[in-house]
Specification:
Layout: E1 4-5, E2 8-9, H1 10-14, H2 33-41, E3 44-50, H3 56-63, E4 67-68, E5 76-77, E6 80-81, E7 89-92, E8 95-103, H4 104-127, E9 145-147, E10 150-152
Antiparallel strand pairs: 1-2, 3-8, 4-8, 5-6, 7-8, 9-10
Protein backbone atom coordinates (compact mmCIF):
# COMPACT_ATOMS: atom_id res chain seq x y z
CA UNK A 1 0.00 0.00 0.00
CA UNK A 2 1.34 3.40 -0.99
CA UNK A 3 2.22 5.88 1.73
CA UNK A 4 -0.53 8.57 1.64
CA UNK A 5 0.09 12.24 2.40
CA UNK A 6 -2.90 14.61 2.30
CA UNK A 7 -4.83 12.15 0.14
CA UNK A 8 -2.03 11.85 -2.43
CA UNK A 9 0.60 9.23 -2.76
CA UNK A 10 4.23 10.12 -2.26
CA UNK A 11 4.81 9.20 -5.90
CA UNK A 12 2.16 11.63 -7.17
CA UNK A 13 3.55 14.39 -4.95
CA UNK A 14 7.09 13.88 -6.24
CA UNK A 15 5.96 14.41 -9.87
CA UNK A 16 4.64 17.93 -9.33
CA UNK A 17 6.71 21.01 -10.11
CA UNK A 18 9.12 22.30 -7.50
CA UNK A 19 7.28 24.16 -4.79
CA UNK A 20 8.56 27.61 -3.84
CA UNK A 21 7.45 28.38 -0.29
CA UNK A 22 5.48 31.62 -0.02
CA UNK A 23 7.09 34.25 2.18
CA UNK A 24 10.64 32.95 1.90
CA UNK A 25 13.54 34.98 0.62
CA UNK A 26 13.81 34.88 -3.18
CA UNK A 27 14.61 37.20 -6.05
CA UNK A 28 11.43 39.00 -7.08
CA UNK A 29 12.51 39.64 -10.69
CA UNK A 30 14.15 36.26 -11.20
CA UNK A 31 13.35 34.69 -14.56
CA UNK A 32 11.48 31.44 -14.90
CA UNK A 33 13.59 28.48 -16.02
CA UNK A 34 12.13 28.36 -19.55
CA UNK A 35 12.78 32.06 -20.27
CA UNK A 36 16.30 31.90 -18.79
CA UNK A 37 17.10 28.80 -20.88
CA UNK A 38 15.72 30.42 -24.03
CA UNK A 39 17.88 33.54 -23.57
CA UNK A 40 20.95 31.44 -22.77
CA UNK A 41 20.39 29.36 -25.93
CA UNK A 42 20.13 32.60 -27.94
CA UNK A 43 23.35 33.84 -26.25
CA UNK A 44 21.57 36.91 -24.85
CA UNK A 45 21.83 38.69 -21.50
CA UNK A 46 18.57 39.80 -19.83
CA UNK A 47 18.03 43.20 -18.24
CA UNK A 48 14.97 44.83 -16.65
CA UNK A 49 14.39 48.36 -18.02
CA UNK A 50 12.16 50.87 -16.23
CA UNK A 51 9.86 52.80 -18.55
CA UNK A 52 10.50 56.35 -17.37
CA UNK A 53 10.80 59.79 -18.88
CA UNK A 54 7.94 59.11 -21.33
CA UNK A 55 9.68 56.06 -22.77
CA UNK A 56 13.10 57.67 -23.20
CA UNK A 57 14.75 55.00 -21.05
CA UNK A 58 13.26 52.16 -23.11
CA UNK A 59 14.19 53.94 -26.34
CA UNK A 60 17.77 54.36 -25.11
CA UNK A 61 17.91 50.60 -24.46
CA UNK A 62 16.52 49.88 -27.94
CA UNK A 63 19.11 52.26 -29.44
CA UNK A 64 21.82 50.40 -27.48
CA UNK A 65 20.90 47.05 -29.04
CA UNK A 66 18.44 45.70 -26.48
CA UNK A 67 15.27 43.96 -27.65
CA UNK A 68 12.02 43.21 -25.83
CA UNK A 69 11.67 39.65 -24.56
CA UNK A 70 8.26 38.34 -25.49
CA UNK A 71 6.12 35.73 -23.80
CA UNK A 72 6.03 32.42 -25.65
CA UNK A 73 2.76 31.30 -24.10
CA UNK A 74 -0.09 31.91 -26.51
CA UNK A 75 -3.69 32.70 -25.72
CA UNK A 76 -6.45 31.40 -27.93
CA UNK A 77 -10.11 32.33 -28.07
CA UNK A 78 -12.37 30.41 -30.41
CA UNK A 79 -9.36 28.63 -31.90
CA UNK A 80 -7.61 31.86 -32.94
CA UNK A 81 -4.58 33.38 -31.28
CA UNK A 82 -5.26 36.63 -29.45
CA UNK A 83 -2.90 39.35 -30.64
CA UNK A 84 -1.86 41.44 -27.67
CA UNK A 85 1.21 43.03 -26.16
CA UNK A 86 3.38 39.97 -25.51
CA UNK A 87 6.32 41.87 -24.03
CA UNK A 88 7.22 40.55 -20.58
CA UNK A 89 6.63 43.35 -18.11
CA UNK A 90 5.76 43.93 -14.47
CA UNK A 91 4.03 46.93 -12.94
CA UNK A 92 6.18 49.27 -10.88
CA UNK A 93 3.90 51.96 -9.49
CA UNK A 94 2.44 53.81 -12.45
CA UNK A 95 5.19 52.56 -14.78
CA UNK A 96 6.39 49.21 -16.09
CA UNK A 97 9.61 47.26 -15.93
CA UNK A 98 10.18 45.59 -19.31
CA UNK A 99 12.32 42.51 -19.70
CA UNK A 100 14.81 43.23 -22.47
CA UNK A 101 17.87 41.33 -23.69
CA UNK A 102 21.03 42.09 -25.61
CA UNK A 103 23.41 39.78 -27.48
CA UNK A 104 26.22 38.73 -25.14
CA UNK A 105 28.92 40.17 -27.41
CA UNK A 106 27.35 43.66 -27.13
CA UNK A 107 26.92 43.20 -23.38
CA UNK A 108 30.61 42.28 -23.03
CA UNK A 109 31.64 45.33 -25.09
CA UNK A 110 29.52 47.61 -22.87
CA UNK A 111 30.96 46.08 -19.69
CA UNK A 112 34.53 46.52 -20.97
CA UNK A 113 33.83 50.20 -21.69
CA UNK A 114 32.37 50.71 -18.19
CA UNK A 115 35.33 48.92 -16.63
CA UNK A 116 37.79 51.13 -18.53
CA UNK A 117 36.08 54.23 -17.12
CA UNK A 118 36.05 52.75 -13.60
CA UNK A 119 39.73 51.85 -13.88
CA UNK A 120 40.59 55.40 -15.00
CA UNK A 121 38.84 56.90 -11.96
CA UNK A 122 40.38 54.34 -9.58
CA UNK A 123 43.88 54.98 -10.96
CA UNK A 124 43.43 58.73 -10.53
CA UNK A 125 42.28 58.33 -6.95
CA UNK A 126 45.18 55.98 -6.13
CA UNK A 127 47.66 58.43 -7.67
CA UNK A 128 46.77 60.86 -4.89
CA UNK A 129 46.14 63.88 -7.04
CA UNK A 130 43.18 63.27 -9.32
CA UNK A 131 42.24 66.12 -11.62
CA UNK A 132 40.12 68.67 -9.74
CA UNK A 133 41.48 67.81 -6.29
CA UNK A 134 44.30 69.72 -4.64
CA UNK A 135 44.85 67.39 -1.67
CA UNK A 136 44.44 63.77 -0.67
CA UNK A 137 41.11 64.70 0.94
CA UNK A 138 38.55 63.71 -1.69
CA UNK A 139 35.40 65.28 -0.33
CA UNK A 140 32.44 67.25 -1.65
CA UNK A 141 33.77 70.56 -0.29
CA UNK A 142 37.07 70.00 -2.14
CA UNK A 143 35.33 69.49 -5.47
CA UNK A 144 35.43 65.71 -5.69
CA UNK A 145 37.20 63.88 -8.48
CA UNK A 146 36.97 64.87 -12.11
CA UNK A 147 38.74 62.89 -14.79
CA UNK A 148 37.70 63.86 -18.29
CA UNK A 149 33.91 63.68 -18.38
CA UNK A 150 33.78 61.39 -15.35
CA UNK A 151 33.03 63.01 -12.02
CA UNK A 152 33.10 61.43 -8.56
CA UNK A 153 31.80 63.49 -5.68
CA UNK A 154 31.27 61.41 -2.51
Amino acid sequence: MADKIDGRTRQARSKRTKRVPFGTMRLKLDLDAATAAKLKAENKVPYWVLDKDNGANVQAALDGGYEFVESTGGMEVGGEEVKEDRRIKVASGDRFLYLMAIPKEYYDEDQAEKEATNRMVDDSIRAGRPKGVNSLDISADKGGVSVGDVKYNP
